[in-house]
């Protein structure tokens, strides 16, 4: 039977943005300990995969940006923006983080994995074509989506449930109707993008779906949003693969966020994603770690996620009516998706 792959590597512990930084190597250590203790059956840890190559990088980033990050290699401490810093091995870690997503996509397309969790750092969804920001150096999921397209997928759906809007990923595919970007995020909040009216441009109009949220949303609210908005959009779009920016800063303990999701809530989100993947694209589903800054909340959220990915059933998903707090999205969904 095909397994759930967890792609990770000790090099991800060597990206060190400084002892006072919330995006710390301890995050990954906490998750690894949690996964070891949980000992979930049907899960295989994979540590041997290639870093992203130059071709992967320049599908999403400018040559100048790649050179700028490469130039930090070997330097003990560089400050790229107020939130984003590097250590001597950050460039190598960032290449391998993107490589985990690209390799995971290949495993799914070859039918060698049930589904994939890329347990990586640094995170990626804020990284723009020409700029590191928000703890992100290269955009891991955007590179995975671009790689999936180059490998023959006609349509790629990216789902981003991190607390923060994935500005980098949205911008990478803003004029593209082959990569649909769907994001739930606290708004207004860092990085400032992600209004409901940001729906794409040119050929890409309608293929960006933003669900800005005021804060305080918990398990039931997230499941209702996924079932009422994501399920009908995904059925209309019919992706060949689903990639997910999995951010655990929506958990109730998170110091940076105002959401209230519990481990059960993460299981609920993953059940919808897994059900959609089974229904639409032969189960091809990859999640990649983004944020999450409570060591306990992050650990418990990822363990719940991996347990659900490895669970034997593929749950059927049912859409539900739009919750009253999302009334503002109704016109947008009707005009682009006839929902
Ligand atoms: Zn975040």
Characterization of this structure:
There is one protein chain. The chain is an alpha/beta fold. The protein has a single domain (4-337), classed as Arginase, Chain A (3-Layer(aba) Sandwich). The chain is 37% helix and 14% strand. The protein has ten helices and ten strands. The chain has helices at 25-38, 54-60, 63-70, 90-109, 140-150, 167-172, 219-237, 263-280, 295-310, 330-337; strands at residues 4-7, 43-46, 78-81, 84-86, 115-118, 156-160, 179-186, 208-213, 241-246, 285-289. The strands form two sheets. The chain has an eight-stranded parallel beta sheet, with helices on both faces. Strand 6 (156-160), helix 6 (167-172) and strand 7 (179-186) form a beta-alpha-beta unit. Helix 8 (263-280) packs parallel to helix 9. The termini are far apart. The mean pLDDT is 97. The structure holds zinc ion. Zinc ion (ZN) binds next to loops.
List the defining traits of the structure above.
globular, Arginase, Chain A, binds zinc ion, eight-stranded parallel sheet, 10 strands, two-stranded antiparallel ribbon, 339 residues, alpha/beta
Number of helices: 10
Bound molecules: zinc ion
Q: Please, what is the CATH homologous superfamily? A: Histone deacetylase domain
Taking the alpha carbons of the first and last residues, their distance comes to 37 Å
Instruction: Report the uncertain regions.
Output: none
| CATH fold group | Arginase, Chain A
Largest sheet report:
8 strands, parallel
The ordered H/E elements are EHEHHEEHEHEHEEHEHEHH
């Amino acid at each position: 039977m095909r397994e759930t792959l967890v792609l990770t590597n000790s090099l991800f512990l060597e990206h060190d943005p400084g002892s006072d930084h919330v995006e710390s190597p301890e995050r990954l250590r906490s998750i690894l300990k949690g996964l070891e203790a949980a000992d979930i059956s049907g899960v295989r840890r994979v540590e041997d995969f290639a870093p992203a190559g130059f071709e992967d990088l320049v599908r999403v980033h400018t040559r100048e940006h790649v050179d700028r990050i490469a130039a930090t290699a070997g330097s003990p401490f560089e400050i790229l923006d107020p939130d984003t810093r590097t250590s001597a091995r950050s460039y190598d870690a960032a290449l391998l983080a993107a490589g985990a997503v690209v390799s995971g996509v290949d495993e799914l397309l070859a039918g060698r994995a049930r589904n994939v969790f890329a347990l990586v750092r640094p995170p990626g969804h804020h990284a723009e074509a020409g700029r590191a920001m928000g703890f992100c150096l290269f955009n891991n999921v955007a590179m995975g989506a671009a790689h999936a397209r180059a490998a023959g997928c006609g349509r790629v759906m990216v789902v981003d449930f991190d607390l923060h809007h994935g500005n980098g990923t949205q911008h990478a595919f803003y004029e593209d109707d082959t990569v649909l970007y769907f994001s739930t995020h606290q708004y207004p909040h860092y990085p400032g993008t992600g209004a409901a009216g940001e729906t794409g441009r040119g050929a890409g109009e309608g293929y960006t779906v933003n669900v800005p949220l005021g804060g305080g949303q918990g398990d039931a609210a997230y499941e209702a949003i996924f079932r009422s908005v994501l399920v009908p959009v995904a059925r209309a779009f019919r992706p060949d693969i689903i990639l997910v920016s999995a951010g655990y800063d929506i958990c109730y303990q998170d110091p940076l966020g105002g959401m209230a999701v519990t481990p059960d809530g993460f299981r609920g989100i993953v059940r919808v994603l897994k059900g959609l993947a089974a229904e639409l694209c032969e189960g091809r589903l990859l999640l990649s770690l983004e944020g999450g800054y409570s060591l306990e909340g992050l650990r418990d959220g990822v363990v719940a996620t991996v347990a659900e990915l490895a669970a034997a059933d593929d749950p059927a998903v049912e859409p539900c009516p739009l919750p009253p707090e999302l009334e503002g999205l109704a016109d947008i969904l009707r005009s682009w998706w006839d929902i």
